[in-house]
Specification:
Elements: H1 2-5, H2 22-35, H3 61-73, H4 77-100, H5 105-116, H6 119-124, H7 131-146, H8 152-168, H9 174-188, H10 194-218, H11 225-230, H12 236-256, H13 262-287, H14 291-304, H15 319-336, H16 341-366, H17 377-389, E1 395-397, H18 401-408, E2 411-413, H19 422-428, E3 433-437, H20 443-451, E4 455-460, E5 464-469
Parallel strand pairs: 1-2, 1-3
Antiparallel strand pairs: 3-5, 4-5
Helix pairs in contact: 2-3, 2-18, 4-5, 4-7, 5-16, 7-8, 8-10, 9-10, 9-14, 12-13, 13-15
Length: 471
């Protein structure tokens, strides 16, 4: 399996990153950890006028993981993206270990390759984001919890892994909830002893302590403040409907690809989702609610009610379970027929390879061309001008403040989400310059700049413009 996954390290390797924003904040926090600076001093200015953009700082789990790369290579995007490819390789191995506990080796190997070499995964592995390391620690913790003999030592290991998982992304709190629900339900049903329940409780306590140690005691910083302030239960049903629709569409794209004929995509993706549902229901009927089922349901309920949407990446931690249920669903008709299991494996491998090939070829051909990126020539020139010519203490309003802060060393904040708050933002925060990238075209920001007369143009090229605030 190691040999089959080795190409993950090199396929579609980038030496650039898209505009994103999260990646810049993670790297800036890793830089602060290496240099011994307060973790939240990234240059990004958090405002209540666009709180949904990002919190003042993220939990320190992922920045801690990034520390060795920054310590060795500095702000080298190629080194960071290779590091992320290495993490995808590790995630593939963890996925394989998880699957081979439940399926024959050929099935586990086929499913691992289908999962990892999906075009979405091949593109996503070049994103410097917390989702893949979160998946690694989640699978490691789940595998530890699955062991038939669960002792104090195993509870301690699982607790450390879960604490690190929560420190990477606070949504990881779903797992202690799932552990508690599983332990209590199994205890009251007489499936486990009080000793095993104690081990489960110990795992939860260790996880919470590890999170507090890293995020409150060793590296204290405001983390989830921005998101918590924005959560509104009065709009819960709207968020659920929106997230259900969007995640459903992204799951269809993940299963069937973007470059394939719409009819094929429709039939293929719906068939797979129905089989996964059948597999989930079959597991419930055969074994009842276990840790996997509680984890799956609690996590899905959490992200479907979340007010902010970050695309398919939020589904990534549950994809191993989805694929598990999918295979359980496929087993149903296979068992009722006389078809050889090896033929099923070969058939599915060929089908997925056909679906994946067009997009993987496109990714391979375009891998060296920066797209929607601060590494595009005009954007790079604009950021270089800011770093070389604007005062060190300048505060700049920009659509992507975290990226600007990372690459220029200047403080930056973003425009108000509501145009009516623009004047309030300028009143409450110091703004020395306005920067605009035409490749990031923001109609609201453009209209504001058109009507804001107290500014003077400082510099421009074909895509990047810098104005001085003369107010």
């Amino acid at each position: 399996m190691l040999i089959l996954l080795l190409p993950v390290l090199f396929v579609n390797h980038h030496d650039w990153h898209n505009w994103g924003g999260d990646f810049a904040q993670y790297i800036a926090q890793a830089k602060n950890l290496v240099e011994g600076s307060p973790v939240q001093n990234t240059g990004y200015i958090y405002t209540i006028y666009n709180a949904g953009l990002a919190p003042p700082s993220y939990p320190v789990g992922f920045p801690i993981i990034l520390m060795p790369v920054y310590a060795l290579f500095g702000l080298n995007i190629s080194a960071f993206t290779f590091y992320m490819s290495l993490m995808m390789f590790v995630a593939g191995m963890m996925f394989f270990i998880f699957l081979k506990k439940h399926f024959p080796l050929p099935y586990a190997a086929m499913l691992t390759l289908v999962f990892i070499y999906n075009p979405w995964m091949m593109e996503f592995k070049e994103q410097i984001l917390s989702d893949v390391p979160f998946l690694i620690f989640f699978l490691a913790c789940f595998i530890q919890m699955e062991k038939s003999v669960f002792s104090v030592s195993k509870a301690l290991v699982a607790g450390v892994l879960a604490g690190m998982m929560i420190s990477i992304r606070e949504v990881g709190l779903f797992f202690p909830v799932a552990i508690a629900a599983t332990g209590m339900s199994h205890f009251f049903l007489g499936k486990i002893s009080g000793r095993v329940l104690f081990h489960a409780v110990l795992t939860i306590i260790i996880a919470v302590l590890i999170y507090l140690l890293l995020n409150k005691w060793l590296f204290p910083a405001a983390t989830s403040e921005g998101y918590l302030k924005q959560f509104n239960f009065s709009n819960l049903w709207f968020f659920v409907q929106r997230n259900l629709h969007l995640n459903f569409e992204y799951l269809r794209e993940f299963l069937s690809g973007q470059e394939n004929p719409p009819v094929w995509k429709l039939i293929f993706s719906y068939a797979l989702m129905l089989l996964a549902l059948a597999g989930f229901l079959t597991q419930l009927m055969r074994k009842g609610w276990g840790l996997m089922e509680f984890s799956f349901v609690v996590y899905i309920a959490l992200i479907f009610s979340f007010p902010f949407y970050q695309g398919f990446r939020y589904l990534l931690p549950m994809l191993p379970f989805f694929i598990f249920y999918l295979m359980k669903g496929i087993e149903l008709p296979v068992r009722l027929s006389s078809v050889n299991h090896n033929y099923v494996i070969a058939f599915l491998t060929v089908i997925f390879a056909i679906f994946y090939l067009p997009e993987n070829l496109r990714l391979h051909q375009q891998r060296h061309v920066p797209r929607w990126s601060p590494d595009e020539p005009f954007s790079k020139e604009g950021l270089h001008y800011i770093k070389a010519n604007l005062p060190d203490d300048a505060v700049i309003l920009f659509e992507k403040p975290r990226v600007l802060a990372l690459f220029t060393g200047r403080k930056s904040l973003t425009f108000a989400a509501n145009p009516a708050d623009a004047e309030a933002l300028l009143r409450d925060f110091r703004v020395d310059y306005f920067a605009e990238s035409l490749s990031l075209y923001n109609e609201v920001y453009r209209q504001f700049l058109d009507h804001f007369n107290e500014k003077s143009e400082v510099w421009r090229n074909e895509e990047f413009v810098i104005y001085k605030n003369e107010r």
